[in-house]
Design brief:
heterodimer, A: 417 residues, alpha/beta, six-stranded mixed sheet, four-stranded parallel sheet, 14 strands, B: 266 residues, TIM Barrel, nine-stranded parallel sheet, 12 helices, 9 strands, globular
Chain lengths: 417, 266
């Protein structure tokens, strides 16, 4: 079991050059260096400017719907019969996921920098929708890069972005998924950085994005910590969040890093870690550099990047934020794989016992929490980041359950393995 | 003396400009690639940039992306790229630079790469997504070898950074002619002239212009502004247009002669 480090972690990383220990950094072509130095300078100013922070807080409250509730999953906990499971309800935000916290912050920064256009990459479409949302709110022109494969899988989100006035750019290069969308966004940015702000959706990418996105998302953990102390007069024993790029997990974990709380990051194990079809960059990958940062990657021995696989398009990325790579090496957070099947079981349990339809991404965190709850006594508490709602996943879940049923007659709704 | 440095010295003495050419190693397949590279060296190039194929080339336009995909599909690896360089070195004196992205080098091991590249007769390295700030480990690995580490300056680079990069670069300074990714076209001659003059003024080393140069005419226009020009996508296109053509080496040689003639008219 993990225990907190004796030395404090909050405020220690990244260092002045954007490194989280051996990870992170700013590995980009020279054409983008000036753009990144400008974002860094603007961010360093803004993060210490009370007016900026006050605008950020006000917009999170009035536009995004914060604070989100902290909710005890009593019936689910009783059903599992172990530790009590608490939910941080990011699914209750405007646009239905934690992604809104980050785009509000980056939108305010883009406006402060006088940019007229924002661009973003998206996989499942959640970050694309969130970016399209603030683009409409702020009056930015907006382009979202999305792999043609994801456009096919996530048609409702494409429709949402278009309604919000965003230009969805189909990406056909490479594997036509999230990593290629990010490649294409970087390419586009390198030709347009003078008037364009790149809204990166997770705690990944070149410095200062991993720090900046974490600091915009830490509102999740700051709220949850205060709410938990108020309701339970103690801290949770364990925090659990899903990790694709890892922004909702960093957001929850960060304010607790110096507390005596255990932490689990649930990575998408897809068909299983013993198969090539997964997206578990930390537990199933090796260190390398992609999209501007040194971190853990899914790659072959030659350093070519593998396509990631998960039932959840939001976890379907072959890298992970560099701060997670460091927290893994420091053993401060335990990273574990959760298969598609386990996530689907947890998805159904939450629907049936709590009346909450979770995003498939968040269902990975729930599955890891349920696994732990079973092993732990009733007086322990587990705080799960319910990072998003699952409306976007209904068609997909229906199809996959149908497939599982036809493959295995033993499988039934809500089965518990 | 390093072959890159020697080449620029010789060219300067003859009042000639350098033709630096990029081709992706293993494109369209390892064997044909060797024949094409061999022909390119004979057709009058001064420095060869040998591209290491990578799955996610974020600084490249569609032409070089596709070349990377063709090479990877044909089984090209960094080990085979080093073999290709060693084979070329046995037959030609043309300076060879490895040109690629950081991850394949990092994964290979920087010390091992430095040692093996040196043994293969490679003369320099250019790592597109490795700005000087992140190059410490690679520079340390290159200590004790004769390999030059070349850095780039972009149109977006501010003057204080230009000065820093000009001090850091080895062999020559790669000056990107326009913002965006690699690919043909979009050259604004007056903007490039001004930028090149500013960079030349602070660079102790030769300056070469790359991105967007299509043919002998472009070469002729840009050459007077710098010490050489760099051509990539326009050459890779020769392969892209007919990857199965039996006379690819001859086609490549013809394209290079066009560039060479343009350059020598400048």
């Amino acid at each position: 079991m993990t225990s907190p480090n004796s030395t404090p972690l909050i405020g220690q990383y990244p260092d002045a050059s954007g490194h989280f220990g051996p990870y992170g950094g700013r590995f980009v072509g020279e054409t983008l260096m000036t753009a990144l130095l400008d974002v860094e300078a603007a961010w360093n100013e803004a993060k210490n400017d009370p007016a900026f922070l006050s605008d950020f807080r006000a917009m999170l409250r009035d536009y995004a719907g914060r604070p989100t509730p902290l909710d005890c999953a009593d019936r689910l906990s009783d059903h599992i019969g172990g530790a009590r499971i608490w939910l941080k309800r990011e699914d209750c935000t405007h646009t239905g996921a934690h992604k809104i916290n980050n785009v509000v912050g980056q939108g305010l920064l883009a406006r402060r920098m006088g940019k007229k256009r924002v661009i973003a990459e998206t996989g499942a479409g959640q970050h694309g929708v969130a970016t399209a949302t603030i683009a409409a709110r702020f009056g930015f022109e907006c382009k979202v890069f999305m792999g043609t494969e994801d456009i096919r899988r996530q048609a409702p989100n494409v429709h949402r972005m278009e309604l919000l006035g965003t230009d969805v750019i189909p990406v056909t290069s490479g594997t036509a998924t999230l990593k290629d969308a990010m490649n294409e966004a970087l390419r586009y940015w390198s030709g347009t950085s003078a008037d364009t702000f790149y809204v990166i959706g997770t705690v990944s990418g070149p410095h200062p994005y991993p720090e900046m996105v974490r600091d915009f998302q830490r509102v999740i953990g700051d709220e949850a910590r205060a709410q938990f102390l108020e309701k339970c007069s103690q801290l949770p024993d364990l925090l659990v969040a899903c990790v694709g790029g890892g922004s909702n997990a960093m957001g929850l974990f960060y304010p607790f890093l110096d507390d005596p709380c255990e932490m689990i990051g649930a990575e998408a194990a897809g068909d299983g870690l013993d198969t090539p079809r997964h997206a578990a960059s930390i537990v199933g990958g090796t260190p390398g550099e992609l999209h501007g940062a040194l971190t853990y990657l899914l790659q072959n021995d030659e350093g070519q990047i593998h396509e990631a696989w998960s039932i959840s398009a939001g976890l379907d990325y072959p890298g992970v934020g560099p701060e997670h790579a460091l927290l893994h090496d420091l053993k401060r957070v335990t990273y574990e794989g959760v298969t598609d099947r386990e996530a689907l079981d947890a998805f159904q349990l939450l629907c049936q016992f709590e009346g909450i339809i979770p995003a498939l991404e968040s269902a990975h965190a729930l599955a890891a929490a349920i696994r732990e709850a079973r092993k732990r006594p009733k007086d322990q508490t587990i705080l799960v980041n319910l990072s998003g709602r699952g409306d976007k996943d209904l068609d997909h879940v229906g199809q996959v359950l149908e497939k599982f049923r036809s493959q295995n007659s033993e499988f039934r709704m809500g089965s518990e393995q | 003396m390093n072959r890159i440095t020697q080449t620029f010295n010789t060219l300067a003495a003859a009042n000639r400009k350098a033709l630096v050419t990029y081709l992706t190693a293993g494109d369209p397949d390892p064997e044909t690639s060797f024949a094409i590279l061999r022909a390119a060296c004979d057709a009058g190039i001064d420095i060869l940039e040998l591209g290491i194929p990578f799955s996610d080339p974020t600084a490249d336009g569609p032409v070089i992306q596709a070349a990377s995909q063709r090479a990877l599909k044909a089984g090209m690896t960094l080990t085979k790229t080093l073999d290709l360089a060693a084979r070329l070195r046995k037959e030609v004196d043309t300076p060879i630079m490895l040109f690629g992205y950081y991850n394949p080098l990092f994964k290979y091991g920087l010390e091992r790469l430095a040692k093996e590249a040196s043994a293969a007769g490679v003369d320099g390295l250019l790592v597109v997504d490795l700005p000087p700030e992140e190059a410490g480990p690679l520079k340390a690995a290159l200590v004790g070898t004769d390999l030059q580490l070349v850095f780039l300056v972009a149109p977006t680079t501010r003057p204080d950074r230009v000065q820093m990069i000009a001090q850091e670069t080895g062999g020559f300074l790669y000056l990107i002619t326009r913002a965006g990714t690699t690919g043909e076209g979009g050259l604004d001659v007056e903007v490039i002239r001004k930028h090149a003059a500013e960079v030349k003024a602070v660079s102790p080393l030769p300056v070469c212009l790359g991105f967007g140069i299509r043919n002998g005419q472009d070469a002729q226009k840009l050459a007077p502004m710098a010490d050489g020009i760099i051509v990539g996508s326009a050459l890779v296109n020769v392969i892209a247009h007919a990857p199965a053509a039996p006379d690819l080496p001859e086609r490549m040689a013809a394209k290079i002669r066009d560039l060479r003639n343009g350059l020598d008219r400048a």
